[in-house]
């Protein structure tokens, strides 16, 4: 199928110099196609010019020597292992610009870079490295290529609220799970027998409530803005994670009320055996006073 180059502008052909492209592969054709759109006359150099029928319309396909004689800028869109023919064209390439667009398959594949290798093969030419970070697909897609979209749509994740929600969701889940495992380990008889009652009470009470808070916050952040949004409720029924939050939230609300000083102090005295206006307590206090005397 023959490609048709649609110029982006309508410049005069005499205004631009002819560009030669060595290689009629995907990248060579895509680069030549883009050059034609920009108004540059393009000539392709190929080992078999008669068999190169997929070049863009408006470009010529010649053998290497004839193509070099038509242009002062030659783009090397061929692999390094096919550079040997350049030694025969050293005289024709003298003083001309060779643009190296190649990339090796792996790091340190050759002792020298491709540009240095070209400089040794054609010492009279000017070697330039360019276009090696652009793919053939990006050249063909133009403004729709993914690399340009990624640069244009690049945003700071710390500015977007969803970025904070995602990081907080993961961090709260990891911390809550760690404390949950710690509570489970300390509940084992072999472990609980090695700690005193103060340590065991601290772990099961203080860390237990902290674990409940972290896990509840983890689920709340998971819902985010969709937590109580009626638009996402299917058949007017809440999601499973909403139902799972009812009991933990009730426990935390009651605990928050009970830790208020006006309630916490009387409850602490009651747990310690204090009784208000009790005849038994007064009698016991009187008897203890007489015994001391």
TrEMBL record:
GO molecular function terms attached to this record: oxidoreductase activity
InterPro entries on file: NAD(P)-bd_dom_sf (IPR036291), P5C_Rdtase_cat_N (IPR028939), STEAP_metalloreductase (IPR051267)
Residue intervals of the Pyrroline-5-carboxylate reductase catalytic N-terminal domain: 18-104
Regions crossing the membrane: 169-188, 209-228, 240-263
The entry's keywords: Membrane, Oxidoreductase, Transmembrane, Transmembrane helix
Gene3D superfamilies for this protein: NAD(P)-binding Rossmann-like Domain (3.40.50.720)
Keyword Transmembrane helix attributed: yes
Short name of one Pfam family: F420_oxidored
Source organism superkingdom: Eukaryota
UniProt key word Membrane: yes
UniProt protein name: STEAP4 metalloreductase
Annotated gene: STEAP4
